[in-house]
Amino acid sequence: MPGAGKSTVADLLARSLPQAARVSGDVVAGMIRGGRVWALGEPADEARRQVDLTYRNQAMLANSFAAARFTAVIEAVIPDREQLDLIVELLDPAPHLVVLAPGIASCRSRNATRAEDERWEFTSYESLEASMIEGYGEVGVWLDTADLTPQETVEMIRTALESTSH
User: Fold this and answer.
1) Residue 165: its pLDDT value, please?
2) What is the rounded average pLDDT of the residues 121-148?
3) Is pLDDT above 80 for 78?
4) How far apart are alpha carbons 146 and 135 in whole angstroms?
5) What is the phi/psi pair of residue 21, to 5°?
6) What mean pLDDT do residues 144-152 have?
7) What proportion of the chain, given as a percentage, has pLDDT over 90?
8) Could you give the dihedral angle defined by the CA atoms of residues 115, 30, 76 and 116, in that order, rounded to the nearest 10 degrees?
9) Which single residue of 78, 82, 122, 141 could bond 160 by disulfide (Cβ 3.0 to 4.6 Å)?
């Protein structure tokens, strides 16, 4: 969710690995300079098309990095199972899913303390959280990071992924 710490943690995680690249959904979506529609914007069908395009481009970049023996750390908001399945289908090798789940109160607080130009006007935390839990709450590693620093979160992710790799 906005404010969960995805960008900060993805960057730190990628920097902590021997050969890694961060593939940011915000950066990829921001490549659209004319006609861009925000993920929750109107018209909704165009917003969804652009979100799918962002996922497809993130997957292509991640696959390219993986082919060159880099670990790709993809950072994105994935609101439901349909969109998770799309990303998983496009990635080779299959990804490890890590969900930063600090809770709605923490996300709101973090978002409110951002610089004004980095703040999201987002009011759908409850429905997004419900959609994520209902859609893929049993998949991947879910981490309650509300009381963790970004570096502590990276350490938890690395530990969790090492235990699933064996």
Assistant:
1) 64
2) 94
3) yes
4) 22
5) -135, 140
6) 97
7) 82
8) 10
9) 141
Residue 141 DSSP symbol: E
- 50 contacts 32 by C-beta, under 8 angstroms: yes
Quote the DSSP letter at residue 113: T
Helices then strands, each counted (H, E), the chain? 7, 4
Helix (H) or strand (E) holding 143: strand 141-143
d(CA 16, CA 14): 5
For the chain, give percent helix, strand, coil, nearest 5: 55, 10, 35
- What number of other Cβ atoms are within 10 A of residue 137's Cβ? 15
Alpha helix positions (H), 71-141: 81-90, 104-112, 125-136
Residue with tokens 């908001």: 77
Contact 54, 25 (CB under 8 A): yes
Residue 41 has pLDDT above 80, yes or no: yes
Cα separation of 4 and 25, whole Å? 14
Q: What's the sign of the alpha-carbon dihedral 100, 143, 60, 20?
A: positive
Q: Hey, what amino acid is at 101?
A: A
Q: Across-strand partners of 22?
A: 73
The tokens for 18 are 């021997």
